[in-house]
Amino acid sequence: MTHPPDPQVCVVIPTYNRAELLRRQLEGLTRQSLAPERFEVVVADDGSADHTAEVVASFSGKLRIGFHTQEDLGFRAAAVRNGGARLATAPLLVFLDTGALFGPDFLAEHIAAHAGPRPDGTRGGRLVLGYAYGYNPYRPFPGLAEILAQSDPEDVVRSHGGRKEFQDLRHAELDRVGFDLGRLAAPWMHVWALNMSLPTADFEAVGGFDEDFRSWGGEDLEFGFRVHEHGLPLVLSRRAWVLESPHERDLDGNRASNCANSWLLWEKHPEPVMELYGAMYSRNHYDPPLEHEYGRLLEWQERAAGLDVRAEAERLAAEPLPDGRAASRVVVLGAGGHPPRLPDGVSCTLVDFDRRALDALPAAGGVTALHAVGLRTVLAAGSADLVVITSRLRGLWERWSGDLLDEARRIGATVRVAFTDGSGSR
């Protein structure tokens, strides 16, 4: 008795009340150049009330297909993707959003993108981001629904793929680095779960998607951040493309949800790049992009590497508070690697954006180090008598002074800036 070969790849498709979009997508999987016994499909349903289950069942004789469903408790894309992935038996996972269409070589191209050495010449896993034609929710490609009704996806891409308004929404930013994600400071910003793949073992090693994300936006970026921190290279495959088919979206609701979730990423990873992300995306500030702002921070970090601000911190900390008392709880934003010498009994929290400076700090009683810019910190409101902002933050001041001052005032009643006229009190 012969047994079917083990599948090479599992396609996980999260869905919710999009049965007919799902049907066309599954039909696309029946015409893959990869033999049907070499891949499996798991439809992961977030509690649909339409005929999704019937559509899935209709493909049981055409595809190796499984079905995972969960109760409709609101938007839980992270949880439903994880549930679908748990049914996978293949060593490679491909995640697709419902309605993403593709050509016959789609799965073969994802598999090919995982073959051979990684960009640095080493061997091992990688996270492959596939290209996405036609995905621009706020400026949809004119007439795309009508075009798709008459043509196969590969014919549409062949006819319109060179048009700027049809290209991947990430195209211009990626083009600036030659589509080499390794040249980006924050490559995880381009991790969109609508078309991506990675080894199942690596997906499990990072813990899958974070199920605390229970509304639209951010869960795939947060996943990408953890994958990047895990050491998995991020690479782009323009050959493993999808074409996003038009469908209704709650654009205003999605925008509001994405804003709300922006600080959730920071709560999960309270470090400088996520401070920038939260400060920008909570206000719908996308231009210039995070890559630009984070790049500016890293450039300033190098320029300020040798800047010793101990003397200015000591001077401002020694001045009496407005009520005449001496400060007993001091926070220094932009502290660098040289802790100020403060009187015995004074607690001091040293905050700096350069982890190298904090790692170089000598051990000292009453001193706490915190890796942050100071746009938002984990410090409690009112936890300091005095917050000192040093000249190590001068290079970020024009762009971020408002956020820095707001956070400083939240932490302490008195704020002093070392590089303003006069005393620097605010």
UniProtKB/TrEMBL annotation:
Gene Ontology MF term list: glycosyltransferase activity
Top EC class of this enzyme: transferase
EC number: 2.4.-.-
Sequence ranges assigned to domain Glycosyltransferase 2-like in this UniProt record: 10-128
Domain Galactosyltransferase C-terminal, first and last residues per copy: 187-232
Keyword terms: Glycosyltransferase, Transferase
Presence of keyword Transferase: yes
Gene3D superfamilies: Spore Coat Polysaccharide Biosynthesis Protein SpsA, Chain A (3.90.550.10)
Xref: InterPro entries: Galactosyl_T_C, Glyco_trans_2-like, Glycosyltransf_2, Nucleotide-diphossugar_trans
Protein name: Glycosyltransferase
Organism, scientific name: Streptomyces chilikensis
